[in-house]
Amino acid sequence: MSAMNLFTLECAGCTAPISEVIVEKGVHRCPFCGYVNVLPKPEQTSEVKHHLYNADEELKDYEFERAYNAFAKASELDPSESKAYFGMALAKNRIKYIRDVVNNRWQAICCEVSDRKFSEDKSYLRALECATPEQREEYTSRAEEIDYIREKFAELEKGGLSYDTFICVKVSDENGGFTQDSMWANRLYDSILKSGAKPFYSEKEIGDRTGEDYEALILYALYKAKSMIIVCSNEDYLRTPWVQNEYTRYYAMLNDEDKEKGSIVVAFFDSVIERVPGLKGKLQGISLRDFDASQKINDFVSKFATKKPVKAIKVEEKTQKKSDAQIAEEFEKNKKLYAKKGFKLSGYELKKYKGKDPDIQIPEGVTTIAPKAFAGNKKMVSLTIPNTVTTIGDGAFESCESLRSVSVGNSVVSGSGAFSFCKALSAVTLAEGTTRIPKSFFSCCHGLKEIEIPDTVTEIGEFAFESCVNLVKITIPNGVVEIKDGTFTSCYALKEVNFPKALTYIGEYAFTSCESLKKLTLPSTVAQIKESAFSECRAITELTVPGSLSVISPDVFSDCKSLKSIVICDGVNEIGGSAFAGCESLRSVEIPSTVSRIRTCAFAGCSSLAEITIPGSITEIEEKIFSLCTSLKRINLGYGIREIGPSAFERLTALREINIPRSVTTISGSAFEGCSSLTKIVIPKSVTQIRYGAFASCGALKTICCEVMEKPSRGWDLGWCEYPENINFIWGYEENK
User: Do the Cβ atoms of 705 and 682 come closer than 8 Å?
Assistant: First the structure.
């Protein structure tokens, strides 16, 4: 409840005028902004109004003790002023109101965890006695809202959900788009999750909660979190109501010794932020511009985190023994019983579940589960789906945060995102006879460490196990011939993958960011691996690319930071753009003569690569293929290469000498730019084009040996390169002279 201009009778939300008629009722609901003004009695004295106004202002600033004292003074001056008593109840229970701009409503914010009912508070009950009928209705509505929040908090507590850190950030900018801060918050959330801790970030955890449900989870997360990270690039963001509401509440818990000292950190960008509005003293800070910012954040979180392993719950698979006719008969007979248990049925479709049972068995006979039928259910712990179910609607069980075990019948063929964001799910049984795992079926099931996929499965949908961050091992049945897009992306803990023997296709981002995957054995049947399939698999050390793969796709193994050696088998024809870019530990590459093309940036940034042999089957060395390979000392170029492309060997700072084969006709611009250790180069007669800046910034280059007798009148831009003044050109050079 914010302050109201009591003297001019204007709405505190938007300053619209309040009519005298409404004042008599004691409540004004503004038609323009939705703000509810609870008004003092029309005949109230200026002194009482003054105390009420000051009290409202103190509530706005989280000064609950001061607010209580001001409301109490008003009640002493006029023992029949309902606004004073209701304000006392709010202040005593540390409750204020903030405008929810997205939903155009005013939301109660509970700054204190309590199992007491607000509706039983003595000051609240006294307010009801003194209130007008309209005020009484408003007070009752607010009390119900507050009690609902506290009840939901208690439910979350029983569910055992816990958080190690709370990420506080301004998510949306003034135009409704995402702030830069929110993008960094996303990265930090993923990084912290990978480290084994449990972060809370509203955009990741809230789902479709609104109003009281939203506030209950925020309050719960603040209460449970062992630390807080305030992500901020703009100090003005710290003054926005929702951001200030979060860090102020956490800080209050810290002052009450519910949190450890030093458990708040500010993650800033360019400008150092040490002080936060409303908090005393300086806070420690971490610059997000630092190269090791994520590690510093993880170290901070782990300092306060408490990690408890989740025990898997085993569920016995239940097989169907009755005939279809018997099942249908029993289903029809028991429909009333199912309704009493909370199942809302329409024919053989389960529309919604409204029961409170933690262990749920879908009635045998149900064939379809509607989309979102159980979504967000907070009580369900175990679930059994019978073999009669063939269709599960999209997101039917998503965000069931207490769900730990699931047994799925063998007839399910659809259900996109059915169990997505069931973050406690740790035990899954798929019945023998199952043929398909639908798209995103188990995405973001953070508790899932292992799953046995029946041999009968022939299809696994896109993103089926995306972000199952604790999944350690997977065996893909031999009946699966395609691994689709994103199937195991961001499975950070995945160490072992057993591929099917007849596998032919691996889709885009299929294993991206599987950072624990050390051994990769690709079957010889694989004909296509799409873009970025294994990018950022930072633990892989060795790789053999089978000859069945005619094209190595772009970015397919980029940023595999631990990859040391690559063997490319005969049969591969093309290496795609940035295919191995950023493989900074790479020391050995074998390229067969079947390869006829290496695309742009294929090995860029392979900073440990010391030697490379490029066969003559490749006619053009494309742009930036070996750019920033700073350890590359020896390059063996095969006869047959005709063109060295732009920046192909840019900034090879360890390269001292290179022999260009007599098949080369063109050396493109910046081809050897920044090769600061290059001292000698021989340019054969075949070269007709040397383009601008080919040897720019080659500070150690002393001698250019040219097989032609004199500089050609056209095609060579030698005079425009950045050479030292004492460069020595040798014309008519012969290698064995």
Answer: yes
